[in-house]
C-alpha cells in the first residue's frame, strides 16, 4: 500500500471539538469586548464632557456655566430628555449671574486626511460666530493643522456673519472659504495658503451646521436666555465640584 493510500485511509479528526473550541473563544472574546466597553464608557463620557466644557468656555468668552439642550421638531428642550433621530444637541454658556452669553455647537466636515471635528460659538446678539475650537483632526503637520495655529485664520472667527435671511429659514449669506487675501465680506473665510482643503473643510462644517441649527434655534432663543437662581447655583456647584 502506498503512502498516499495510507493517508487517505486514516480517519479524519472529529470536527465537533474544534468547532466548540472556536465558538467558545469567540464568545469569550465578545464578552471581554462588551465588559471593556461598559467599564470604560463612563470614563470616556466624562473625558468628553470635560473636553466639551473646556472648549465651550473658549468659544463663548466669559461663560462660566453651561446647560445642554436639544433642538427638536417641537422646539428647544433640555438635553435631559431622550435624544431622537434628527435632534440636534447644543450647549448654552452663561455668566455667573445666569445671563446667556452664547451658544456652542458641534460641526464637522471632511478635511485632507480625515474628518475635522470642531466646536463653534454663536453670539445671538451680533448673529455671528465668535470663535472655533478644533476637537479632532488628522491633517498634515505644519500645513493642515494651521487651522489651529495660524493667527490670521483664527481671526476669521472673531465675528463671522451668520445672520438669518428675512424668512428665517436659512442664512442670509452662506459661509464660504475664499482664496487667501481675497476676503471682502464678513461671511467669508480667508483661506490659509498651502492648506486650502483644511480651510474649506472648516467653512463647509460651519455653513452646514449653522444652516441646520440656527433657523430652529433663533426663534426659541428666549427659552434659554435666562435661568432661575436655583439653576445658576446648581451649575456653580457642579462646575466647582
Automatic annotation (TrEMBL):
| Domain FMN-binding residue range list | 111-213
Q: Where are the transmembrane segments?
A: 20-40
| Gene Ontology cellular component list | plasma membrane
InterPro entries hit by this protein: FMN-bd, Ion_transpt_RnfG/RsxG
Q: Which cofactor does it need?
A: FMN
Q: Which UniProt keywords apply?
A: Cell inner membrane, Cell membrane, Electron transport, Flavoprotein, FMN, Membrane, Phosphoprotein, Translocase, Transmembrane, Transmembrane helix, Transport
In its UniProt record, which GO terms are filed under biological process?
A: electron transport chain
GO MF annotation: an example: FMN binding
Q: Which Pfam families match?
A: FMN_bind (PF04205)
Which membrane topology describes this protein? Answer: Single-pass membrane protein
Subcellular location as annotated: Cell inner membrane
Enzyme Commission no: 7.-.-.-
Q: Which residues carry this modification: FMN phosphoryl threonine?
A: 196
**Subunit arrangement?**
The complex is composed of six subunits: RnfA, RnfB, RnfC, RnfD, RnfE and RnfG.
HAMAP family according to UniProt: RsxG_RnfG (MF_00479)
Its biological purpose: Part of a membrane-bound complex that couples electron transfer with translocation of ions across the membrane.
Q: Which family does it belong to?
A: Belongs to the RnfG family.
Q: From the Swiss-Prot or TrEMBL record, give the protein name.
A: Ion-translocating oxidoreductase complex subunit G
Q: Which gene is annotated as encoding this protein in its UniProt record? A: rnfG
